[in-house]
Amino acid sequence: MMIRKILGSVLILLLSSVWVSVLKAQSLPLEEIVAKVQEQYEVHEDFKANFIQESMVKSLGKKQMAEGIVYFKKPGKMRWNYQKPTKQEIISDGKNLWNYRPEDKQVVVSPMTNAFQSKAPSTFLAGIGNLKKDFQARWGKEPSPKENYSLELTAQEAQGSLEKLFLLVDRESFKILQARIQDVMGNVTQISFSKIQFDNRLPDSLFTFTPPKGVEVFNMPGSSPAGQTAK
């Protein structure tokens, strides 16, 4: 009789622990996940990560690969340092955007508003986008207990050539691990993030650019003079 009671108690404990594990593994509602992702990038002042970018140009049937380090700081500041296959820097202070190619000794300066007509994904990561307001969300893939969340986002309003945005979200931290953009021409750009770090106290000087000597500058309409940060 005593052995039966002990075995019964053990069985109850085992079933209880399994039930708790199942509850923890269950997926959250879609709306709650979107809200938690938004919150993740609202509460932190800055963000940096390594990235790998894969671009498929449909008309060429060719995949292009690139990698480097990216930095974001609210509001609207960002810096993409491409290290492979060739050096390139894309920098914004929130108003101007510099696209610098050392190999070509050229930099193109554009107003931030013209350079990014869509709100995905850079503007969101830089703290000037809102997933809930700007997009209609649905599952990109039905959630399972052990996999990260896959979201498919469709813009509420037309945003340049953007057709859809797909996000892969860490199911524990709600960090964006991957962003994939599909445009109306069928071109796809996928950016995978690793070594993600928040609140690095990034200086504002990281998000300005002064053209090196000998570099040709092309100022697009609406941009500030070369080498000057918009006020």
Q: State Rg.
A: 22 Å
Task: Indicate the CATH architecture.
Answer: Clam
Q: Report the major sheet.
A: 12 strands, mixed
Structural class: alpha+beta
Q: Helix content range of the residues, please?
A: 10-25%
The end-to-end distance, rounded to whole angstroms, is: 82 Å
Overall average pLDDT: 80
Number of domains: 1
Q: Give the uncertain stretches in residue-range form.
A: 1-25
Order of helices and strands: HHEEEEEEHHHEEEEEE
Summarize the structure.
The chain is α+β, with helices and mostly antiparallel strands and 231 residues long. The chain is built from five helices and twelve strands.
Write up this protein:
With 231 residues, the chain is α+β, with helices and mostly antiparallel strands. The chain has a single domain, classed as Clam (outer membrane lipoprotein receptor (LolB), chain A), CATH 2.50.20.10. The chain is 21% helix and 41% strand. The protein has five helices and twelve strands. Strands 7-8-9-10-11-1-2-3-4-5-6-12 form a twelve-stranded mixed sheet. Strand 4 and strand 5 (96-101) form a beta hairpin. The N and C termini lie far apart (82 Å). Mean pLDDT is 80; it is low at 1-25.
Looking at this protein, list some descriptive labels.
outer membrane lipoprotein receptor (LolB), chain A, globular, 12-stranded mixed β-sheet, single chain, 231 residues
